[in-house]
Amino acid sequence: MSSLQETFYVPARIHYGLSLHAHLIGCSSTCFYCGKLRWMSVQRMFAHHQGFVLPVWNQSDLPPSCSTKSTHMFKKVVIANRGEIAVRIIRSCREMGIGTVALYSDADRMAKHVLLADEAYHIGAASSQESYLNVEKIIAVARACGADALHPGYGFLSENSHLARMCESAGIAFIGPRAETIEQMGDKIAAREAMIAAGVPVVPGIERQLDSAADAESLCQQIGFPVILKAAAGGGGKGMRLIRTLEEVRSAYETARSEALASFGDATVYIEKYIEEPHHIEFQILGDKQGNIIHLYDRECSIQRRHQKVIEESPSPFLTDELRQRMGATAVAAAKAVGYVGAGTIEFLVDRQGNYYFLEMNTRLQVEHPVTEEVIGLDLVKEQIFIAAGQPLQYKQTDIVQRGHAIECRVCAEDPENNFMPAPGVVCQLTEPNGLGIRIDGYIYEGYEIPIWYDPMISKLIVHAVKREYAIERMCRALDEYKITGVTTNIAYLNAILHMPDFVNGDYNTAFLEQNGEAIADYCCTNHPSDEQAEELEDLALIAAHIDYLNLLEKSGGSSTSSTSADPSNRWREFGKRKGVLGI
Q1: How far apart are CA 310 and CA 313, in angstroms?
Q2: Which residues are catalytic?
Q3: Strand partners, 313
Q4: CA-to-CA distance for 18 and 57, rounded, in angstroms?
Q5: Residue ranges of the alpha helices (H) in 466-516?
Q6: What is the pLDDT of residues 548-572, one digit of tens each?
Q7: pTM (predicted TM-score)
Q8: Peptide bond before 317: cis, by omega within 30 degrees of 0?
Q9: Longest alpha-carbon distance in the chain
Q10: Contact, 422 vs 456, CB < 8 A?
């Protein structure tokens, strides 16, 4: 390959160039360096490398504005996470030719990210505190294996400034923002102050911590009910309490402080005015080390249960084009105010009149990032890696265009009929949907035991279509095809949500699940069997299969082998019985 490098260049942003198809000279093609559609001269040339036939570009034919020389790129990345996000990161690194290192606890010895990574290291017991939250162990493994970068994923230590600083001290690149930015935006009070200074609208409230329950009662009366208590160091709905009357303040204050301390190690709480039935809309941003910042448009995240997102979509059906542009500009201004570097999210609350307020900034990759990838066409994990390696953004704001519509459903091993209690267990049978416009980011497989120690989300089902109506239809079809046995999941619950008229019409807000709870439950009962009914149906299927098998034996004179081998359809039937009915 060395002789070819003198004349030709294999694009660095795709794995060995395998996804680059050869074109006739003078064609319209997407540039792999800047992502733009260009008219360029591409020669039909091929190179042989390790048994593969690789298409390559003549270096003289590359667009002049595109970099043909790769700057420093990482050789090995440690992934300080687990589950579907670890699998997601491994796949992007593999396409870039970067080695990956998985970390695993006792509960994750046979997890998919461990099986996919180039290297894997045990870091402790099943408890998160002894494994995925143990900064010292993670850094020790990163040093020992010779990694030059670390990706924190989301959750766990993804917004931990101590980890970012430890990486810096160890000479390991942290694929995320600077530690100072994590600290500033992780403290919700400091974040509010920074946004106010930058002229970004914030929810009315106080810019200081509460000193006591009495202090909270006094401030609640000044602001006016309803108000919401929030953990200063928090997120994800933890440490949050809605207060509608003065009598609720003292109890809510104590409960919120206790939950904030348990979840984040910091009991500090503050008060904001509660906006009734808002939309929760966020903007994805990217910022490089050269000071360039762009947004990748919006995601509608208003389908929430207990402040936890359930379904997300992009673009938001609520925003007008004018409001979308204004909010995007505000998101960029907010990121510039703190000198943001990496991939992040600016979250807003939007009221019925279209007034929007800064909610918080997530200094990490979001769970729902795939919907943005689908409508924008960028791999956000790769962009994070390029930025961390010091490369400038390859796109200007005018290059970013939303195409089509994407929806994401969070599939969890939980029981909607039992207050959404986690439902760990062994996956007996797994049939995942596929087809045009369907993507699954997951980590389970048949025979895998879902552990009780971690978040119950087992996959994200994402669909993309040319418009929202078709995306909803595609998601409903995909959910119908998605079959998981052995554990209880929320698939039927998600399907019911997509059939609610308010969702279909795009006329919903953060109160949707509360307002439609009974209708969703009725739909599930009418269209999906309960666990007891499912067991009865499975028993009936098993009996029917056995009767059919006995008839087959009788027709073949007592030998199933001869009949099965003679008729291919019988062999498929036998396979179906074993896999689908018996779950093997």
Answers
A1: 10
A2: 364
A3: 300, 407
A4: 12
A5: 468-481, 491-498, 501-504, 512-515
A6: 888 888 887 765 554 445 565 566 6
A7: 0.79
A8: no
A9: 88
A10: yes
